[in-house]
UniProtKB/TrEMBL annotation:
Its EC number is 1.1.1.58. It comes from the Bacteria. The gene is uxaB. Coiled coil: none annotated. This is Altronate oxidoreductase. It comes from Centipeda periodontii DSM 2778.
């Protein structure tokens, strides 16, 4: 069988976008959108990808930076299938191994946009980073160093500023990135002229992204290759649904991304889209998957078909999450129904274990705000969101350490638990204590949740009750019995 690069060739466009992150999501979302916009809207842009972390590098060069995005699912009530060879990636550089070549991108006159997806861990201020580092460790420090090099190279020209479009799923991602960049300007004494250039020639937009991307379809790879007629080690599977909300309407003309295949909205009001999506879609994932995994399920699609877990999902999303979203209830309910349809997509197998990654910060960002608002509105602890915290603690409950992870147990099987190393270390130590101390210590850890959860009236006792019930009867039986309690 032929290789993808023997059949297709990259397109040639000016490099207008630098992208921090080579991961599945950006490649099936941003690069896909750029590729379509080149075709449909005459965008005429290619992307230089920068790998932001040290370590292994996927084999982009061997494939001439070509890869296939396979979209499978329903769209407007009908089955949808698309195989698109993305041809707009011009080069892939490591910020570490190719430092000089990467920094030379700062001198490219055509460059206009910086996209980033460095996970929730990426947008942080680390004062240990220095301007002379090659490169500094933290992403905002890398970006500041890069922008400063550009500012100097073009002598502060107003038309050589860059527009930052971070897609990390944290609140106010653009403003948070700018805050970190300005902190480095101060730390490194980069001067008032540079700070003014960042303010006037550059921009930092808050953005929200939405598309379920599962990456390389390992189990079905052979069938895909058979269908495509070539081999592609970077094959990337995702759903057809797409939404990129960009909080700077002024950029729409220069970045015409909305197309027949990709949904982009430029607006001043990202917040309403973000709250709806993060609370309902991501909140449903995070509050469901850990308990569902312990209940013996492996994929989101399995949860949708399982009447017991499905009852949880229906009751928690419509009863506890939707009423907290600051939109007309009918609108939020319609969004939730659409999300359920996406979860039911039989072609995209979204593994619960992949969603479980970093669940502590996810529960804090994606579930706790709904928990808090639901409690405020109803005056009581929301049944399922409270249970979901116990399910999280049950999923993380182990004293076994693996390589950069903990090892959990599901019956006779084992699974890997990935989260911040220091959080895992403390949880493993607490797991050796009686259940009430494990639960107490975890809830009291302010750095996990941003507050001491033991101070919430009745929460600790209720979480302990769920936790002990999961241990006694199993997650499945407990979810079933909870479904019957009003
Ligand atoms: N997969 C999806 O459906 C989806 C949808 C919307 C948003 N996202 C977001 O995208 C992120 C990545 O998902 P993915 O599916 O591309 O995963 P992936 O494993 O394919 O890629 C991870 C990416 O994050 C970068 N990265 C990891 N740790 C980093 C760090 N400490 N600092 C800087 N960069 C770091 C890697 O270089 C890589 O580009 C997730 O955290 C998620 O918030 C994913
Ligand atoms: O990608 P993560 O690990 O941040 O979260 C897992 C899922 O909730 C997430 O990928 C959603 O599928 C995505 O946010 C949909 O747009």
């Amino acid at each position: 069988m032929k290789e993808i690069q023997e059949i297709y060739s990259p397109e040639s466009h000016p490099v207008r976008i630098m992208q921090f992150g080579e991961g599945n999501f950006l490649r099936a979302f941003v690069d896909y959108a750029v590729d379509v916009a080149n075709e449909e809207n005459g965008l005429d842009a290619s992307v230089a990808i920068v790998i932001p972390i040290a370590g292994e590098r996927p084999q982009f060069a061997a494939q001439k930076n070509l890869y296939t995005v396979c979209l499978r699912g329903q769209q407007e009530g009908a089955p949808y299938k698309e195989n698109r060879v993305v041809k707009c990636v011009d080069r892939v550089l490591s910020a570490y191994a190719d430092y000089d070549a990467y920094m030379q991108l700062a001198e490219l006159a055509s460059l206009r946009f910086v996209v980033s997806n460095t996970t929730e861990a990426g947008i942080v201020y680390d004062p240990a980073c220095a301007l002379a580092d090659k490169p500094p460790k933290a992403f905002p420090a890398k970006l500041t160093q890069f922008l400063y090099a550009r500012f100097r190279h073009f002598a502060g020209a107003a038309d050589k500023g860059l527009h930052m479009l971070p897609v990390e799923l944290i609140e106010n991602n653009g403003q948070e990135l700018k805050r970190c960049v300005l902190a480095y300007v101060k730390l490194w004494n980069l001067g008032a002229d540079f700070a003014a250039w960042l303010d006037t020639a550059c921009s930092f937009a808050d953005t929200l992204v939405d598309r379920i991307v599962v990456g390389y379809p390992r189990a079905e790879a052979a069938a895909y290759e058979e269908e495509l007629g070539y081999r592609d080690a970077l094959l990337n599977q995702a759903e057809p649904f797409s939404l990129w909300v960009i909080g700077n309407p002024a950029l729409e003309k220069e970045l015409p991304l909305a197309s027949s295949k990709f949904h982009a909205i430029f607006t001043d009001d990202v917040v309403k889209y973000k709250e709806r999506k993060v609370r309902i879609l991501n909140g449903a994932h995070t509050s469901m998957v850990l308990g569902a995994y312990l209940a013996g399920l492996d994929y989101v699609g399995d949860c949708m078909k399982d009447p017991i877990v499905r009852t949880q999902l229906d009751q928690s999303v419509y009863g506890e999450i939707v009423p907290t979203v600051h939109l007309p209830e009918a609108e939020s309910r319609a969004f939730a129904a659409a999300v359920f349809e996406r979860f039911e997509n039989p072609f995209v197998h979204h593994a619960l274990l992949s969603i479980s990654l970093n669940s502590i910060s996810k529960w804090r960002a994606r579930v706790l705000p709904s928990f808090r608002d639901s409690r405020k509105h109803t005056g009581r602890l929301p049944k399922w969101l409270t249970y979901s915290l116990a399910a999280l603690l049950a999923f993380y409950h182990t004293t076994d350490r693996g390589e950069n992870c903990l090892i959990g147990h599901r019956g006779t099987e084992t699974y890997e638990i990935h989260d911040d190393a220091d959080k895992l270390e403390r949880l493993a130590a607490w797991a050796a204590l009686p259940a009430k101390d494990y639960v107490h210590n975890a809830l009291a850890a302010e750095d996990f949740w941003g507050e001491d959860l033991t101070e919430i009236d009745g929460l600790e006792a209720k979480v302990l009750e769920h936790f002990e019930r999961i241990a006694a009867v199993g997650a499945k039986a407990h979810i079933e019995e909870l479904g019957k309690v009003s």
